[in-house]
Design brief:
Elements (H helix, E strand, L loop, with lengths): L1 E17 L2 E14 L4 E6 L9 H9 L7 H7 L4 H18 L3 H4 L12 E3 L4 H10 L5 E5 L6 H11 L4 E5 L6 H13 L2 E5 L19 E3 L18 E4 L1 H4 L2 H13 L3 E4 L6 H10 L5 E2 L17 E2 L2 E2 L9
Parallel strand pairs: 4-5, 5-6, 6-7, 7-8, 8-9, 9-10, 10-11
Antiparallel strand pairs: 1-2, 2-3, 12-13
Helix pairs in contact: 1-3, 5-6
Amino acid sequence: MRIEVTEAAFELAEAFVISRGARTHAKVLTVTVTDGLHSGRGECVPYARYGETMESVTALIKGLPLPLGRARLQTLLPAGAARNAVDCALWDLEAKQTGKRVWQLAGLPEPKPEITAFTLSLGTPESMQAAAAKNAFRPLLKIKLGGGEEDLARLRAVRAGAPDTDIIVDANEGWTPELYASLAPVLLDLGVKLVEQPLPAGADDALLDMDRPLPVCADESAHDRSTLDALRGKYDVVNIKLDKTGGLTEALALKQAALDAGFGVMVGCMVGTSLAMAPAVLVAQGADFTDLDGPLLLAEDRATPLYYDNAGAHPPSAELWG
């Protein structure tokens, strides 16, 4: 067995802005696992918010002992980007070795397309209204907000631009308890369906004592199953991202554990390519909310991209993954 790690940057269609900064490229690591006859691939996006860099994640992957299987991998690496890319590559490798699709190997029903959110990055109210109007044909828009005084104006502007579209809001930890409490009734009035991570992950205990008039989703506060108990009483929905769970193996387990615990499920992504979205489509089956729009934000993608249409994000072809 051999593991290779390569770094690439895929240009975005336009700058993507959240409360923590802006980017013009999706910087990803591609892991290829080869047994001599077959190869499997996986992708990850190291995230500085969790102390990850391209270099640190690459070092973790290159330091893995070989040969390697999915079960052993769970004990060798923590949840995070490095384990995600290797885990997904191992799933893809087994699919290539057996001639079966990953959904069959995992004992899942055959996947179908899932409606996905399309994300509007943080901007002025005027620019966000224009972006909303441009994308008003989409069934679900996700709005990035920043915690500033303009957030209410941004919300109203997006609703004016897309009056009939469902909206979810992502504050990226940018609000205070006071700001959330003041905005929550307005979010309801504007028809917002979900608010994602309104408070910083380290300061979200304040949600225990607050009314939640609309569902609140844990993102930065939710990683793998070990973080699930701490979400009780604070959140209604858990955002499952493979770069946080450390791969498809844990993502599927977290989804079932979250459902068993009474949480709703959202399946999200970092800004990556179709290779990163492909395994997430399997997790997204039947989710309350799906946010797998990474490829829709790119100016360039993998040679065999994921297919999107009015039915949503389609399951990957075998040529892409799994």
